[in-house]
Amino acid sequence: MPHSHNEHRNYQESVYKTNPEYLKLNHPSLSPRMVSLVLHWVQQCCEVFYLKRETYYLASCYFHLYLSKVENLKPKHLQLIATSCLLIAFKIEELGLLSCNSLVEVNNGQCSKTDIVVMEKHISKTLCWKLYPKTLNNILGQATRQWDDFVNGNLRVFISL
Amino acid sequence: MEKNNPEEFKVPFSPLLIGRYKMIKKIGKGSYGSVYKVEDIKDRKTATTPDSPKKYFAVKKMKLPANRLKIQGIDFTTLREINILQEIKHENIIPLVDVFHINRSTFMVMELMKSDLSKLMFSRTITLTIPHIKCIMLQIFYGLKELHKNWIIHRDLTPNNLLISEDGVLKFSDFGLSRFFASNNRPMTQNVVTLHYRAPEILFGANYYGPQIDIFSAGCILGGLLLRGTLFCGRNDIDQMSQIFKIMGTPSEETWEGVTNLPHYVEFEETPPQSFRILFPGIDEDLANLLEGLLVLDPNKRLTVEQCINHPFFNKSPDSCDPDELPMDDIS
C-alpha cells in the first residue's frame, strides 16, 4: 500500500526544505525586491509560452531551493538562474520541447544557450537531482479536491434535506 | 603498474572518465544509450596496498536526444530517471552511485550486476525449481512494494530490466519510463511497457491507469518463468490482446466494468477463460491461483503487491530459497 498522502507530504517537507532566511544569511548583495521581480518575470515568461501553472510553481521551488544552498550570488545572475529553473521545470512537468533559443530571446540576449545549459546542470547537481517537490499549487489542488469529495458525499444530502 | 598490461591499450575508448573511472568494455546497449563496465581508480590510489580488490561499476551513457543540433541541456527522460533513483533506496532497486557530465552526454554510475533475469529465464541449461521461482517472485514483489509505497509506477517491468547480482539479489533498473502517480490527474501515455508485458488496460488505450500495470507485468514474468519463454508473445497490439484473451477469456461488462468505454476497445471473438492447471500441468493450486490473480483483466480486481507477498503460495512448503542459492554459476 502506498504511503498516505499526509505521510508522503511530511516526508517531502523534510527533503525539500528551504531556508527562509537565505537572503540575509547567504546573499548580502540581494534584496527581497530583486527576487520578487525575477519571479514575476518568470510568471510573464510562462504566460508568453502558454505554460501550465504547475510549471511556474516548480520553477520557483527550484529557485528558492538553489538560492538556499549556494552563497554570495550577484544580482546579475538571478535572471540566468531563473531561466534555467524554468527549463528544468518544463522538462519535469510538460510534454514537448521548450527550445533554448526562445529562452534566450525572452532574456533579451543577456545570456547564451550554453550559459543556460551549464547553469541547468549546476542547479540539478546542487539540488542532488531531487526535483519533485510538492508545490503550493499541488497542495491547493489536493485540498480543493478533498473539499469536492466532501461536498459530493455529505453536503449534497444536507442540501437535499 | 597498469601500463605493463598490454591488453589495457587495446581498449579504444578514452581511458579515463573525469579522471576517476577507467573504461573496460561495453556490456550493453538499448534505446536509452549504452552501458560500460568501468573500474574505479580513485580508491585504488588512496589504498595503502596496491593489491586491494578492484572496484567495478557500470556506467550508463545516456543517448543524446534525436535533435542533437539544438542544444537543449539534459534530456528530460534522463532527468526524470535520475530523480526517481534518487528518491528511493532499497535492496531490490539498483543504487545510483554518481552522476556526471562530459560535454553534452550524461553518465550515470551504478552498481555492476552480473546478469539479468532474461538470461536465467531463457537459458536451456538451467533448471528452475519451485523454491527458485518463489525466491525470484518475492524479490520482484519486495521491489514493487517499495516503488508503489513511494507513489512510483515502473512502467517497464521486463526480465531484461531486472538485474541479478552475483549473490542472486534481484534489482530493478531502467527507470526511464517511470513516473509518479501521486496527486496529479494528468492523462498518461499508452506508449509504455514492452509489448509482451503490457497490461490489457493500456492496450485498450486507457488514459488513467495505476500501479496495477506493474502487477500484470509481474504476472507475465511468473508465467514466463514456468514456461521458460514469453507467456504472451504477440506480433502487434491486436495480436497481443488476442493472445491474452485466449488464456484469460474475453472481457465483457460483467467481468470488467467499464471496459467498453475505453478509447481503443475492440470486440473479440468470445473465448472462455482457461485454467492454468491445464496450461501448466503439474503446478499446484496456489500457484495457479496466484498467476490468475496477477493476470486478471480488470485492473481493479487484480491483486495488490501486499496481497501478493502474503499469498498462500509463498507460505507453503517448499519454502523460498535464499538468493545466493539461485543457479547463478551456470549463466554463460
TrEMBL record, chain B:
This is Cyclin-dependent kinase 2 homolog. It comes from Euplotes crassus. GO terms for molecular function: ATP binding; protein serine/threonine kinase activity. InterPro entries: CDK (IPR050108), Kinase-like_dom_sf (IPR011009), Prot_kinase_dom (IPR000719), Protein_kinase_ATP_BS (IPR017441), Tyr_kinase_AS (IPR008266). Keywords: ATP-binding, Kinase, Nucleotide-binding, Serine/threonine-protein kinase, Transferase. GO terms for cellular component: nucleus. May form a complex composed of at least the catalytic subunit CRK2 and a cyclin. ATP binds at residue 60. It comes from the Eukaryota. Residues 21-314 form the Protein kinase domain.
